[in-house]
Amino acid sequence: DIPVADEPKSTANLMPDAQIVTAVRHWTDRLFSFRVTRPASLRFRSGEFVMIGLPGEGGKPILRAYSIASPSWDDELEFYSIKVPDGPLTSRLQHIRPGDQIILRPKPVGTLVLDALLPGKRLWFLATGTGLAPFASLMRDPETFERYEQVVMMHTCREAGELDYGRELVGSLRHDPLLSEMFGEGFAERLLYYPTTTREQGARMGRITDNLTSGKVFADLGLPPMNPAEDRAMVCGSLAFNVDVKAVLEGFGLAEGANSEPREFVVEKAFVGEGI
Ligand code: FAD
Ligand code: A2P
């Protein structure tokens, strides 16, 4: 018998803005990442988000905001996703496989872009959960390291397994031949990584807010306390996290900026709601 390729599962090819899934990886029972083809016309700035989704009942697509986790130079798009058991989109999206189609509205927007910050010495990425996604894009963009001497990725999750996607990415970037060639052998020391857990024992623990206010992260990494002359930050987590981190950053003398008015830090919600 000649093997016959599976029929595409979705009917998205009948709709505009369909893209094809090229890879899927499951990290935990609540987290997965996937890659899709990139529309030739799509230009975006690393850190921005787009609307993606699947066709719903009656043909009306179910669309949700998703940060693009891949850098602007990549010829595919990567996403890092939660699986909400009864979520209208992710209860289905979590089952996609290579060859399937998703809908992607090619209108990127967002505040977590390099242009929204003033120049500085050090750039902090502060994320919980899937809030890592925009920074997975920015960490892979050489422009980030052209603009800042040091980049510090702080990522906090409840459990250790939820850190794996970020840990693997940072590990591979530190030894990325292209980045090392561009920035020299010392490149690995320019990308600092500070993962913590809060509910499962791990090598490093604690909330980002606590590790900043206590000064523990500065002591552990050998950095001066955050200050408006040198430090810039981007924040992406739940609403409660964003509100609390904003207050901490303001306590260090940093002010919030926007695309139209660059300052010392910018904030974006990783999702709407209380979290799961
Ligand atoms: P929804 O009905 O959308 O959500 C149900 C509930 O699940 C929410 O009320 C909330 O309590 C919880 N929830 C939703 N998303 C998350 C999450 N990411 N982490 C923890 N709890 C959550 N989601 C991603 O997985 N990856 C991304 O890169 C991403 N980027 C986003 C960027 C922006 C600007 C915004 C506003 C949201 C983003 N989201 C992201 C959330 C995403 O839009 C959807 O909410 C998510 O895919 C779940 O969709 P759903 O239809 O299954 O459930
Ligand atoms: P904690 O376990 O102490 O609540 P969630 O899954 O609830 O969105 O949380 C993801 C991670 O973010 C958890 O490690 C959680 O710590 C942390 N977190 C939640 N809310 C805040 C907040 N307001 N400030 C700092 N960290 C937070």
From TrEMBL:
<comment type="similarity">
    <text>Belongs to the ferredoxin--NADP reductase type 1 family.</text>
</comment>
<protein>
    <recommendedName>
        <fullName>ferredoxin--NADP(+) reductase</fullName>
        <ecNumber>1.18.1.2</ecNumber>
    </recommendedName>
</protein>
<dbReference type="InterPro" id="IPR033892">
    <property type="entry name" value="FNR_bac"/>
</dbReference>
<dbReference type="GO" id="GO:0034599">
    <property type="term" value="P:cellular response to oxidative stress"/>
</dbReference>
<keyword id="KW-0521">NADP</keyword>
<dbReference type="Pfam" id="PF00970">
    <property type="entry name" value="FAD_binding_6"/>
</dbReference>
<dbReference type="GO" id="GO:0042167">
    <property type="term" value="P:heme catabolic process"/>
</dbReference>
<keyword id="KW-0560">Oxidoreductase</keyword>
<dbReference type="InterPro" id="IPR017938">
    <property type="entry name" value="Riboflavin_synthase-like_b-brl"/>
</dbReference>
<dbReference type="GO" id="GO:0004324">
    <property type="term" value="F:ferredoxin-NADP+ reductase activity"/>
</dbReference>
<keyword id="KW-0285">Flavoprotein</keyword>
<dbReference type="InterPro" id="IPR008333">
    <property type="entry name" value="Cbr1-like_FAD-bd_dom"/>
</dbReference>
<keyword id="KW-0274">FAD</keyword>
<dbReference type="InterPro" id="IPR051930">
    <property type="entry name" value="FNR_type-1"/>
</dbReference>
<feature type="domain" description="FAD-binding FR-type">
    <location>
        <begin position="14"/>
        <end position="115"/>
    </location>
</feature>
<dbReference type="InterPro" id="IPR039261">
    <property type="entry name" value="FNR_nucleotide-bd"/>
</dbReference>
<dbReference type="InterPro" id="IPR017927">
    <property type="entry name" value="FAD-bd_FR_type"/>
</dbReference>
